[in-house]
Amino acid sequence: VVLADAEGEADPLASGKVLPVYPATEGLSHRLIRSLIERHLDSLIALSRDPLPEPLRRSAGLPPLAEALQAVHRPASTAEAELGRRRLAFDELLDLQLMLLRARAVAKRQRLGVAFEVKRTFTSGLKQSLPWELTADQQRAVREITGDMTAPDRMHRLLMGDVGTGKTVVALFAMLLAVENDFQAALMAPTELLAEQHAATLAGLLAPLDLRPELLLGRQTAAEKAAIRSRLAAGQSRIAVGTHALMQESVSFRRLGLVVIDEQHRFGVEQRAALIGKGAAPDVLLLTATPIPRSLALTLYGDLDVSTLKERPPGRGSVRTGLRAANQREKVLEFVRQECGQGRQAYVVLPVIEESERADLRAATTMVQSLAARWPELGVGLVHGRLKAEERDATMRRFRAGEIQVLVATTVIEVGIDVPNATVMLIEHPERFGLAQLHQLRGRVGRGAEESYCILVAEGPGMDRLRAFAATQDGFRIAELDLAERGMGDLIGARQSGDFELRHARLPVDDDLLSRAHELATRLIAADPALQRGEHQPLRERAVSRYPRAVELFRVG
Question: Does 242 have pLDDT greater than 60?
């Protein structure tokens, strides 16, 4: 609903009239839709029934549905129209929360799993062998995961950690809890490079316990893969790490008790289900390095339990973020050369691959040639999205091994690669990136003990948002800024689902409504899990009509 002058009508602003504006299509104008609705509005409102019981509506401080519909379609003022919109937004958010919380309740009932025992044979050994103390966040996450795994219901938990907060160690405690109960654990990563990295990290942590992870990759020889499959099927290998290769039909586990899926949003539902199906009823731990605002987490992941890591473990260097104008590029490049001259490494990130795509951008290929000519003493490499995965991974491995000092890249290095010796992240045209993307890129440095630097070389509009980014290291604060900037639509793809289209609600503007809807849905599902009571049936019917998925969830029995 907006103040509008539609299709040559007398200016409604001049007469103080507020008109609703409807999405027009060819042959169906705003004015025609408005006249049809105006003609039938009273009879339609008379037919409508408010599914929200009166006591609940009053406690939520909301107008009756009939008043809200009147306010939206026949507003006396923009303030009245906004009150009506907020009621419709609340209904939408309540239906979503009812569906997600019902999904969680149904899943818990159906997912009778293994009630693991805390035997402390391996978990205590890991804690004692760590050269550092777990952060308070890590300790809390381990407690939450242990609570899930020792319960008879299957765990279905998301571990959400800002960059560098130590998710892998927390996941390893869960894996060892399964192992000390004579079960196997599997960790699936989205790329071979990340799987290798996880395997190397786990191998170092497991060595004092006389355990080693089994790494299964698509590029291994047939004989290597056959030997690994044999060990997994026999239960000789207790911890497996791999890519989608773990999901193949030929891979079987003797007794799979825990599945850990890293960067789970990069796998489809079927891929995740294929690995989970390798066990009778394994617990599931999903990992993500993308901080998500609470409002978005409730909306996207309301059917999961969520653990959050914000603190960074000790021993990590700090990352200083600097914003520089394009005319300071020479000074910035000299600083990069000095850092590399001291034995460290740098990333140079650009948003496009070839100059012809966007003439005003310095393309990655041109940058590589320029830097190689400028710094003949340094190895300069290039990775971008059009390279074959094998070529890209080979270059990344050379960078990780220190054979390349400067890696020029597009955003393919956003997530995961861990090179503690890299201390500079130079981002060209940062105004072209989302704030969450920039934060993920910044997280590639500061992974060793040395002080690190993230330098944004920017020109043109958008400097205020970049200053806001430079002013904070908090990934959750940046996620809030990103949500405010981009809105729900762009971010909802994180769940790879069309279930969550919001037509009336606007997050984060309506965060207060979401909190109220979540609290009310929690009370309703706790008191009446299938919404069978007479006063709750209209709510169930509306949720089912809005979300087809809810038909199964609310089927009685």
Answer: yes
